[in-house]
Amino acid sequence: MPLQKLFKTLGPGLLFAGAAVGVSHLVQSTRAGAGFGFELVWILIIANILKYPFMEFGPRYATATGKSLIDGYFKIGKWALILYVALTLGTMFAIQAAVTIVTVGLVSSIFGLQMSPALVTVLILFLSMAVLGLGHYSTLDKIIKFVIITLALSTLIAVIYAFSLGFYNPASLSGNFKWTKHVDILFLIAFIGWMPAPIDVSVWHSLWSVAKEDQLGERPTLSQSLLDFKIGYICAAFLALCFLSLGALVMFGTGEQLSPKGTVFANQLISMYTSSIGNWAYPLIAIAALTTMFSTTITCLDAYPRVLRRATVLLVPETRKMDKYYNRLYWFWIIVVVSGTLLLLGYLSGSMGFMVDLATTISFITAPILAILNFRVITHGHVPKELQPKTWLKIYAWIGIVFLSAFSIFYMVWEFLEAV
Q1: pTM (global) more than 0.70
Q2: Residue 56 is part of a domain; what is its CATH number?
Q3: I want to staple 37 with a disulfide (CB 3.0 to 4.6 A). Which of 175, 207, 240, 390 is the partner?
Q4: What's the 3-state SS for 36-73?
Q5: What is the pLDDT of residue 348?
């Protein structure tokens, strides 16, 4: 495929990377490296491998049918869509709060704002709404290509510099993770939950794929859609490894702990880059980190209303007459997401660390349910056989379902036993 045509086709896969390369990378991967060195690299790799099929089913389904996974859930049974909506309503406020509070910390740190975090949160959410109001998918599509390229290059340079300048500590290979320590297991669960992203993002990806078709005026081939997805997925997985490496190289063994407070964490994050590259790189790193989290905040804020708007139309027949008023339903759900996020941040906890661990743990527990739903949809009879997954990919998916289910059950049983 010519490079120019490839760049034009790219979009949903990079939006996937933009949604993934946020809290899970800047916060969780960095914390994993800083706290445990390179010891959790194998966990990172396994998490990316196990979730791959279920993420791939999003663009595969959109290309095969011209519809999103939301329509697919409805196709296999109203119960499936109701279950998905229930899971979404139960997790979206925590997830949106988690990504927003990290963005708040970066904004406050970089610009030296003295305003209260609550006020900065309101400003960021309303600015995100304004960006979405200007162009929805097309705006995201243009922003994300710049963001991902900038962040990938700056992070890779920082890791190379850190290695070349002798930051490597041999003790970081073994780390100090304790498999019997409650706090370590809790972090591990949270780390896996969003590595490389929650499985919810597969549904968002299918919606972005449909929007990309509308933008292009034609449906990409399956090979084109999957190439776009694989570029985004590999980029997200590679950057997760880079962030873990940066934490392991610069912070592991120093005695310094990454702060659960957003502004302090932001200072530590940027300092990791500048300590390996040099202070001259501060503006570059600040821009890369801020645009990454801001794009993640916008991406999430766009995705939930898209998902719930389509689900509303399918589940409540009366609203089909209002389908032409797309923006009304879209903006209704944006207001719901923003209001719930502000309430959660205001009344539950202002700690970045707490919000991140809450959101990622919820995603970990719900992952097997979403994995099973995605598998049911992509192998359903309404999907053309030639576009369904090959036998090896179906076996691969079943292995993933078994492991994700086993991990979730183990965690819930283990938490219950700890409680009693």
Answers
A1: yes
A2: 1.10.4160
A3: 175
A4: HCCCCHHHHHHHHHHHHHHHHHHHHHHHHHCCCHHHHH
A5: 66
